[in-house]
């Protein structure tokens, strides 16, 4: 080990509630770090605890405001490195800028790779994250990446509901592999919404692969941004004869009209995880599950050099 046997957890301002839950599970206090702003908006960071030689975990979702959250993380990494931390693990429950993971047209950046380079260059030793938008982003890092899945948390919740005649629905072909894994473990049916993108902000549903007629459906996705894709998938399920329509996702970005769209869609329930804070996003059919136990167990395993793969359910 490169650290002195102790580990400390710090957080920025993006998701302190989740960091506190993780510390509670581990029976450790949250580390003392100050994150403030200069009058001109620049971010100022100070680690108040002594971390020389320590195993440091920085919990920070790069969620809206994305640029502030990312800059806070980079400064906390740099501060930890200059304070002689033994090892620095960036814990990103939600990894922002992940949707730009390739050049799909000319003269555009690969933002997910740039963010990976920034995090690495700042001095990070390893990364712990949950449900990357695409798994290939792991390859953008030249340091170890532990990529966890929220599926054990969501799957357990769905199983405990004992929904009869259940079908798992993928909102597009790209998520079909994940939906198939859910369906297999829940002994449920499988359907895939076949759609095409009309423009940057809208899609058109063409067909339903598999049957949802007379079935209760759970639409599974990794994130809800504006809610357009999920609502289109829910409408498609009803069009093809589904009864109760549920939605589950890991990352509830929920920007712009998302909350109103989900409320207007008359979904039976919307299940999300707390990788992103849910202040001002609450509505009656929303259910928030915590990933604190998953992250706490992963942090414990990383610190004691134990296998993390036992946490991979899919």
What would you note in describing this structure?
The chain has a seven-stranded mixed β-sheet, with helices on both faces. 30% of the residues lie in helices and 27% in strands. The chain has helices at 16-26, 66-82, 111-122, 151-161, 176-186, 228-239, 258-264, 292-303; strands spanning 7-11, 33-37, 43-47, 55-59, 87-92, 126-130, 145-148, 166-170, 189-199, 202-209, 216-224, 245-252, 269-273, 286-289. The protein contains eight helices and 14 strands. Helix 1 (16-26) packs across helix 8 (292-303). The protein has two domains: 7-149 and 292-311, Rossmann fold, CATH 3.40.50.2020; 151-289, Rossmann fold (3-Layer(aba) Sandwich). The longest helix is centred in the first third of the chain and has 17 residues, at 66-82. The chain is α/β, with parallel strands linked by helices.
Kindly list the characteristics that best describe this protein:
27% strand; alpha/beta; globular; Rossmann fold; seven-stranded mixed sheet; 2 domains; 314 residues; single chain
């Amino acid at each position: 080990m490169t650290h002195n046997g102790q580990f400390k957890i710090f957080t920025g301002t993006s998701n302190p509630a989740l960091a506190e839950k993780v510390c509670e599970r581990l029976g450790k206090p949250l580390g003392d770090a100050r994150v403030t702003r200069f009058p001109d908006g620049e971010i100022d960071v100070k680690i108040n605890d002594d971390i020389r030689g320590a195993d440091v975990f920085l919990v920070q979702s790069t969620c809206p405001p994305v640029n502030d959250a990312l800059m806070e993380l980079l400064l906390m990494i740099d501060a930890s490195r200059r304070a002689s931390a033994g090892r620095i693990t960036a814990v990103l429950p939600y990894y922002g800028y992940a949707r730009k993971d390739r050049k799909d047209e000319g003269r555009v950046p690969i933002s997910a790779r740039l963010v990976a380079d920034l995090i690495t260059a700042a001095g990070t030793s390893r990364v712990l994250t949950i449900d990357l938008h695409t798994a290939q982003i792991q390859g953008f890092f030249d340091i170890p990446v532990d990529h966890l899945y929220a599926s054990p948390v969501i799957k357990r919740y769905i199983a405990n509901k004992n929904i009869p005649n259940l079908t798992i629905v993928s909102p597009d072909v790209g998520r079909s592999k994940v939906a198939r894994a859910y369906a297999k473990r829940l002994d449920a049916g499988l359907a895939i919404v076949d759609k095409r993108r009309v423009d940057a902000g809208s899609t058109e549903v063409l067909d339903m692969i598999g049957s949802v007629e007379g079935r209760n459906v759970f639409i599974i996705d990794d994130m809800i941004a504006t809610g357009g894709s999920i609502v289109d998938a829910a409408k498609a399920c009803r069009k093809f004869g589904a009864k109760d329509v549920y939605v589950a996702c890991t990352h509830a970005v929920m920007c712009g009209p998302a909350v109103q769209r989900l409320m207007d869609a008359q979904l039976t329930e919307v299940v999300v995880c707390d990788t992103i804070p849910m202040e001002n996003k609450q509505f009656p059919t929303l259910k928030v599950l915590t990933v604190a136990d998953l992250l706490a167990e992963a942090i414990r395993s990383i610190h004691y050099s134990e296998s993390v793969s036992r946490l991979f359910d899919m």
